[in-house]
Design brief:
about 260 residues; alpha+beta; 5 helices; 16 strands
Length: about 260
């Protein structure tokens, strides 16, 4: 189930890996909606809080709770303290993934630009942010109902995974409410809903819940729900929070080891 989830994330992040270039041909309404999201999310320099995650795949369900923190752009700390413990930590140069159940650590050194970008895109808003700055996509306003607008995003070059993306934006908050991806056959492949936006200090709006539903095979879906609690923004975070030392006796697997498998 974990590998399936990783493949889903890879597809989503692949959408935003294009070279940046100015996109002057977009309408004023499209630019205004994009700017509202960018204006909200770019206020966030650090974020920390508690997280509750539930992953459902078929009849299997996995629930975990923990703590997360991020310092923009590339430092990330994520720990699920529910047994068995799991950690994902990056200091911006090395990424560590620890599984207590396996007593195993996967270490990624010399992070590539794409891997560093993945650390930066800890929040789904960055997907729209990157595509907005890329010349590889067309972005049009599909419809507008007072404060809510729906953007339709299409890659200019053929993409075997994604033909179009719909993003619903609440303009006054700069909040993404929904995000849907469609395959070339127009089948829905991913559906993301962001709910319960609250206003925090610094006029930052952030959702309390993110729900992801992905089609991973014929009649197979995978669902992930993340709920956030006690969120704090733009507080000073200690550097050692983003450093990691493998527990005694833990097996350390490197990038080179993974290539051999």
């Amino acid at each position: 189930m974990r590998r399936t989830g990783q493949r889903i994330l890879m597809v989503l992040f692949m959408l935003s890996s294009s070279v940046y270039a100015p996109c002057a041909e977009r309408s004023a309404e499209v630019k205004a909606l994009i700017h509202s999201v960018q204006n909200n999310f770019h206020k966030i320099k650090t974020i920390q809080g508690k997280i509750k995650r539930v992953i459902t795949f078929g009849t299997s369900e996995e629930a975990s709770e923990g703590f997360f923190a991020q310092e923009v752009p590339h430092k990330v700390f994520l720990e699920f303290t529910t047994t068995p413990r799991q950690q994902l930590i990056s200091d911006g140069e090395t990424l560590w993934s620890y599984s207590e159940a396996k007593n195993e650590v996967i270490r990624f050194d010399n992070l590539s630009e794409d891997e560093l970008a993945t650390m930066q895109r800890f929040d789904i808003n960055y997907l729209l942010d990157d595509m907005a700055e890329s010349s590889a996509y067309t972005i049009d306003l599909l419809n507008r109902d007072e404060n809510i607008g729906v953007l339709e995003i299409k890659p200019k070059s053929a993409n075997p995974y994604v033909a179009r993306i719909l993003v619903k934006v609440e303009a006054d908050k700069g909040a993404i409410l929904a995000y849907e991806t469609f395959a070339p056959n127009n089948a829905l492949t991913n559906q993301i809903k962001l709910e319960g936006y609250r206003k925090y200090e610094g006029d930052i709006y952030y959702p309390q819940k993110i729900m992801v539903k992905s089609i991973v095979g014929p009649n197979q879906t995978m669902s992930q729900t993340a709920e956030f609690f006690r969120l704090e923004f733009n507080k000073s975070l200690a550097d050692n929070q983003f450093q990691f030392t493998p527990p005694p006796g833990a097996k350390v697997i490197t990038r080179a080891d993974l290539r051999k498998k």
